[in-house]
Amino acid sequence: MNLFQKVIYFFLTLNLIIFHVICQGIPSPRYEQASSLVGTRLYFFGGVINTTTINEVWYLDLSNFISTSTLQWKSDVSMTVGYNLGASCVNPIDNSTVYLVGGRSFNTNNYLNTSSIYVFNSKNSQWSTLNITGFNNSFIARNELPVIINNNGKIFLFGGRKLEINVAPLFNDINILDTTTMIWSTPVISQNVPTPRGDHAAVLLPTGIIIYIGGYNLVSSINSAISLNEIQLFDTNSLSWTTRSAGGNSIDGRLGHSVILIQNGNIILYGGSIGSNLGSQALPDLAVLDTNIWEWSIPSISQLNAPPPLTFHSAVLYKFYMIISFGRITTATNLTLNGNIYIFDTINYVWVTNLNSIIPSTTSTVTTATSKVSTKTSHTTQTTVNSNSSSNNVNYGLIIGISVAAGAVGIAILSFCGMKIYKNRLQRKTVATPGH
Ligand SMILES: *[C@@H]1O[C@H](CO)[C@@H](O)[C@H](O)[C@H]1NC(C)=O
Ligand SMILES: *[C@@H]1O[C@H](CO)[C@@H](O)[C@H](O)[C@H]1NC(C)=O
What we know:
By secondary structure, the chain is mostly beta strands. The chain has four helices and 38 strands. The chain has a five-stranded mixed β-sheet, with no helix packed on it. Strands 1-2-5-6 form a four-stranded antiparallel β-sheet, with no helix packed on it.
């Protein structure tokens, strides 16, 4: 190769890399997806786009996060079925296996009325289903429930709603899948069992207590939001229920909301609606439950960079940031979906657009907290390491550096992005990415 060829070759390679990064597409707005933080990757599984349940899998690598306006989306291997209104959790023993539990599975838009648990190995992007021992055949497939996995790899399911029928019943049983033995159990509990419910949200305290917040029950066949003064605690050690009465500020009962546990033991609740109808926003959008004194409060927060009111969105805690994604815009009276990401800094109590907050020095130790955190649609631990090495990892920092250095050439190359013919031709030359 002469120098000229080398230069051409260099820019051609650069071109391909930039196409790979910039032109690979962004997910459409959606809701009712499942979401989990796996290491630094924030995954989204399935969901609904308008009326279509989808099987897409997308993720954002938060270690490369620049800003909410320049999201570097990556698609991963799709699910074998369309999937919505279920929840995902990450195995805390390997920090890489994701279980999608409950939910609606669609295949060409028909319900698959199964109780399948879909398993995603995030290390090699492989999907599988579980072989469960002692599966309770009287367990009825269900959706609209949160899942919690504890430190020992036991998955806890509480409540949810039967699939298919219009006025389907809600459940109030606890089912447990031990992922270390693949044994299923349905404990018989008679004391303090909460009323049946769906679209509730849950977090796990480090003590092994699951806190269930909100959701709806059926009153004369009508969805009725459960009061947020009623907090249900399930002890995963003794398999027993306790009810707490939460005081403080008055917060609308709601469904389709999210909760996360932050470092000081407070729970941050976001979004949700007071009923199933469009436009039925629950107020306020953001509230805090202090689990030491069981009181709700409504913090005063600037609306700068804040999300719209959302229902059936996702929320995870990454370091000390609550990341809110997708969802239905609750106030809209025609179905309107959100495709954006919003970030709440849970130390400074401010909505931000990047992950570069300055932590006041007095609270700088909080990032070492190891409490397990779960949300309506996901489970996450506060791990920030466990970087999965996979062939489609791209060093964005390097590429952006290169493209800036390449200056006008880079801009010229980027302008090709809109030209489909080039895109198609060039993508064929790039290394195959799962999901494309
Ligand atoms: C998984 O994450 C937890 C919490 O950060 C950590 O203690 C544990 O060592 C990790 N396990 C593996 C196998 O990476
Ligand atoms: C199976 O589930 C039903 C309903 O929740 C329960 O009554 C029954 O005890 C369970 N059976 C076993 C073997 O756990």
